[in-house]
C-alpha cells in the first residue's frame, strides 16, 4: 500500500514568518512530487512540483526533496494571511498516472 | 485559457438513484483523472484515462461506479444505486499525458449529496 503522510495540523505561524510543511512517502518507486494548495470549499491548486533531490525555489515557495529519507517539504517565506489554506502533498509513481495524496496540513497565518 | 470544467457543481439525490457527473478537460490534454474527496481527507484516486481508454481504474470502489470518455475529451462518471457513503466532492483533473513529469490541473469539483 503506497502511503503519503502529512501532519493534519493546524500549523499556526505569525504573519511574515516561515511556514514549514512536511510530507513523507512510503514507496521508493515514487517519481514526482507535487504541492497543492486548497482553500476551504475550493479545488486543489498546483503550487509547485519537484522531481530531483535538492531544493527548488519559486517566489516565496521552496520545495525540498530527499529521496533517501523519502521526505518532501514546502517552505513558505514571508507568510501572509492569504496563505491560510490546506496544503496537500501528492506523489506520482513511475509509469502511472495517478497521484497519491496525503490528508493535507492546515496552515493558519495570523496577522 | 479555459480550465477544467465540471457539471453540475452540486448534485443532491436520493439513495438508490443513478447520477452522472461530467468533466470537460483543458483543451489539448490527453489524460483525464477522476478523484473523490471526503471532508478532511486528501483526494482519492478513482480512474485515469489516456485518450479514450481507461488506463487505470483500480480506484473505483465497486461495480456501481463506471466512467467513460468516448471521444477522448469529455468524460462522464456514472454512479448506480447511490448510497449515502458516496457523498463527497468528485474532482476531475487533466494533464498533457506525458510519461514523466506530468502535471495535473483540477476542476472545481461536483459536490454529491446522497440523502
Description:
The complex is a heterodimer of chains A (111) and B (115). Chain A is mostly beta strands. Chain A contains no helices and 11 strands. In chain A, strand 9 (85-93) and strand 10 (99-101) form a beta hairpin. Chain B contains no helices and 11 strands. Chain B has strands at residues 5-7, 10-13, 19-24, 31-37, 44-50, 53-56, 65-68, 75-79, 88-95, 105-106, 110-114. The model of chain B has no long low-confidence stretch (mean pLDDT 94).
Structural class of chain B: mainly beta
Largest sheet of chain B: 7 strands, mixed
Which pair of chains has the greatest number of interface residues, and how are they split between the two chains? A-B, 27 and 29 residues
Query: What structural class do the secondary elements of chain A suggest?
Result: mainly beta
Radius of gyration of chain B: 13 Å
Percent range for helical residues of chain A? under 10%
- What is the residue-averaged pLDDT of chain A? 93
The number of strands of chain A is: 11
Give the termini separation of chain A.
40 Å
Kindly state the percentage of residues in helix of chain B: under 10%
The proportion of strand residues of chain B reads over 45%
Q: What is the N-to-C succession of helices and strands of chain B?
A: EEEEEEEEEEE
Radius of gyration of chain A: 13 Å
Amino acid at each position: 500500500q503506497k502511503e503519503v503522510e502529512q501532519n493534519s495540523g493546524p500549523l499556526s505561524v505569525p504573519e511574515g514568518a516561515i511556514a514549514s510543511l512536511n510530507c513523507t512517502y512510503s514507496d521508493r518507486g515514487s517519481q514526482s512530487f507535487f504541492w497543492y494548495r486548497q482553500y476551504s470549499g475550493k479545488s486543489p491548486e498546483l503550487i509547485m512540483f519537484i522531481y530531483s533531490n535538492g531544493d527548488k525555489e519559486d517566489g516565496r515557495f521552496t520545495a525540498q526533496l530527499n529521496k533517501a529519507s523519502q521526505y518532501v517539504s514546502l517552505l513558505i517565506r514571508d507568510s501572509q494571511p492569504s496563505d491560510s489554506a490546506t496544503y496537500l502533498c501528492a506523489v506520482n509513481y513511475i509509469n502511472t498516472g495517478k497521484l497519491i495524496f496525503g490528508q493535507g496540513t492546515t496552515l493558519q497565518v495570523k496577522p | 485559457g479555459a480550465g477544467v470544467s465540471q457539471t453540475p457543481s452540486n448534485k443532491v439525490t436520493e439513495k438508490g438513484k443513478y447520477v452522472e457527473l461530467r468533466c470537460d478537460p483543458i483543451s489539448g490534454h490527453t489524460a483525464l483523472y477522476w478523484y473523490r474527496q471526503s471532508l478532511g481527507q486528501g483526494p482519492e484516486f478513482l480512474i485515469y484515462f489516456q485518450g479514450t481508454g481507461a488506463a487505470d481504474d483500480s480506484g473505483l470502489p465497486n461495480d456501481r461506479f463506471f466512467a467513460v470518455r468516448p471521444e477522448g475529451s469529455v468524460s462522464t462518471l456514472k454512479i448506480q444505486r447511490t448510497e449515502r457513503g458516496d457523498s463527497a466532492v468528485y474532482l476531475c483533473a487533466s494533464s498533457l499525458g506525458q510519461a514523466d513529469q506530468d502535471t495535473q490541473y483540477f476542476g472545481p469539483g461536483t459536490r454529491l449529496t446522497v440523502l
